[in-house]
């Protein structure tokens, strides 16, 4: 609003809307239409629709941001939402507008997340949605078509299973790095070792990043993550092929794209300094919706826990303050360390039964799992939430590539500890592992890589199993 007011665009927008010209607001574009918002505020909006935009209340355990595929309850017959009933659409936000008698004539759909909030409005030619149609797959593309084409029928196949609430997400992850020939390939390791155990010792090549990402979108992946697994070694903005991968993938993949690897402050060989914010901004401009921070977040959390001071200078704090915490994922890479008693270490432990030991804590690592740090996964998760993370990608080095299932003890410990979404990662080998992690923990999503790349467990099979198990998913 500061920018719109200082440039005169706020008055221009008000006049445009009052003249009933075709208008489509998306996410913040809906919130701007209201009287005011609590975000960084109160801040006055355009004042077109009565109401105040408020933050979701996480004080009672509600996971905030509201990230994922949720259902709409359509309350007004509009062309924009023709064919959308029964399908999930993608939300990512922490603030919402509440329905009231004063704005009820504007509302075209509501969504439920603890309470009902306004998910879309329609009045004449003025349309706005809280969700992201450009990231809502075929359903979202039909909404954009409905807006752009006055004569669009909006016809869409009936949902095979009617959307009713926030769905659990199934995420396809692509570990990307250059092979020995300099080609960017998708690879997969066992406990983070990506080279073949043969005489060649070559980097495993499981396909081309854009081709695989496009296929996973078609297969029904709810999100696609690219992890530049050697990004901690090199200057990420020097990795032009990775930026090109994002640009090309964003033209074909209409679900959220996350990219991670090497996002930190950096000085190149010529002595020029680049901030982590500049690095992240280039990823966002190239098509990423979220960025994932690993090692740099560990160092920031360690400093915060030592001093209790938020400096605002870490990559995590800088990026979340500019782009919002929903755009920042922190990737945690721990390994199990067994102890005889919880009193043996100053970190949160869990009771386990494997290897005859009774307790374990999860020691975090940096530099692709190569270096261990004196901080536990529980402590790191709590700290990065305080520093501005909007989501946690929770890996487990012990389970990586083993196909024996997610580390339920770890996922439960962390997902119970924070009020931001947790993505379970590492260890999936069968469809049952996905239903297990959703039934036994508060994980919002589950991620897999190798089993999808090798076609051992198709995404469609995972979704069908989850439906049979009674887990809400986007079909």
UniProtKB/TrEMBL annotation:
Pathway annotation: Amino-acid biosynthesis; L-histidine biosynthesis; L-histidine from 5-phospho-alpha-D-ribose 1-diphosphate: step 5/9
Protein name: Glutamine amidotransferase domain-containing protein
Catalytic activity: 5-[(5-phospho-1-deoxy-D-ribulos-1-ylimino)methylamino]-1-(5-phospho-beta-D-ribosyl)imidazole-4-carboxamide + L-glutamine = D-erythro-1-(imidazol-4-yl)glycerol 3-phosphate + 5-amino-1-(5-phospho-beta-D-ribosyl)imidazole-4-carboxamide + L-glutamate + H(+); L-glutamine + H2O = L-glutamate + NH4(+)
Claim: Hydrolase is one of the keywords in the record: yes
Superkingdom, natural source: Eukaryota
Gene3D superfamilies recorded: 3.40.50.880, Aldolase class I
Biological process terms in GO annotation: L-histidine biosynthetic process
Matching Pfam families: GATase, His_biosynth
CDD domains per UniProt: GATase1_IGP_Synthase (cd01748), HisF (cd04731)
Gene Ontology terms for molecular function: glutaminase activity; lyase activity
Keywords: Amino-acid biosynthesis, Glutamine amidotransferase, Histidine biosynthesis, Hydrolase, Lyase, Multifunctional enzyme
């Amino acid at each position: 609003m500061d920018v719109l007011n200082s440039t005169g665009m706020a008055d221009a927008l008000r006049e445009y809307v009052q003249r009933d010209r075709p208008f489509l607001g998306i996410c913040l574009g809906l919130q701007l239409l209201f009287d005011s918002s609590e975000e960084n505020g109160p801040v006055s909006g355009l004042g077109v629709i009565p109401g105040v935009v408020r933050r979701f209340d996480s004080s009672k355990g509600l996971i905030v941001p509201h990230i994922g595929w949720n259902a709409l309850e359509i309350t007004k017959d509009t062309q924009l939402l023709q064919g959308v009933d029964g399908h999930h659409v993608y939300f990512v936000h922490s603030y919402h507008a509440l329905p009231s008698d004063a704005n009820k004539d504007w509302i075209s759909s509501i969504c439920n997340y603890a309470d009902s909030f306004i998910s879309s409005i329609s009045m004449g030619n003025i349309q706005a949605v809280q969700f992201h149609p450009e990231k809502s797959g075929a359903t979202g593309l039909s909404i954009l078509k409905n807006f752009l084409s006055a004569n669009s029928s909006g016809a869409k196949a009936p949902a095979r299973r009617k959307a009713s609430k926030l769905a659990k997400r199934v995420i396809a992850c692509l570990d990307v790095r250059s092979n020995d020939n300099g080609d960017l390939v998708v690879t997969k390791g066992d406990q983070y070792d990506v080279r073949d155990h043969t005489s060649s010792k070559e980097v495993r090549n499981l396909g081309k990043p854009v081709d695989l990402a496009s296929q996973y979108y078609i297969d029904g992946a709810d999100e696609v993550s690219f992890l530049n697994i050697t990004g901690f070694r090199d200057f990420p903005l020097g990795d032009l092929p990775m930026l090109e991968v994002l640009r090309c993938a964003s033209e074909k993949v209409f679900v959220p794209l996350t990219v991670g690897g090497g996002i930190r402050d950096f000085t190149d060989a010529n002595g020029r300094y680049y901030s982590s914010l500049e690095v992240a901004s280039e990823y966002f401009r190239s098509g990423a919706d979220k960025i994932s921070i690993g090692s740099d977040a560990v160092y920031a959390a360690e400093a915060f826990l030592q001093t209790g001071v938020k400096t605002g200078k870490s990559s995590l704090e800088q990026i979340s303050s500019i782009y919002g915490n929903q755009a920042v994922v922190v990737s945690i890479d721990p390994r199990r360390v067994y102890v005889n008693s919880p009193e043996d270490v100053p970190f949160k432990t869990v009771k386990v039964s494997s290897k005859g030991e009774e307790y374990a804590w999860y020691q975090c690592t940096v530099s692709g799992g190569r270096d261990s740090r004196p901080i536990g996964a529980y402590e790191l998760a709590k700290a990065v939430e305080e520093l501005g993370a909007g989501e946690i990608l929770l890996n487990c080095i012990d389970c990586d590539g083993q196909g024996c299932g997610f580390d339920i003890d770890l996922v439960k410990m962390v997902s119970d500890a924070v009020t931001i979404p947790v993505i379970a990662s590492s260890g999936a080998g069968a469809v049952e592992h996905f239903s297990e992690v959703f039934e036994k923990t508060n994980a919002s999503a589950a991620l897999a890589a190798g089993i999808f790349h090798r076609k051992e467990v198709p995404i469609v099979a995972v979704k069908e199993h989850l439906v049979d198990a009674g887990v809400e998913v986007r079909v």
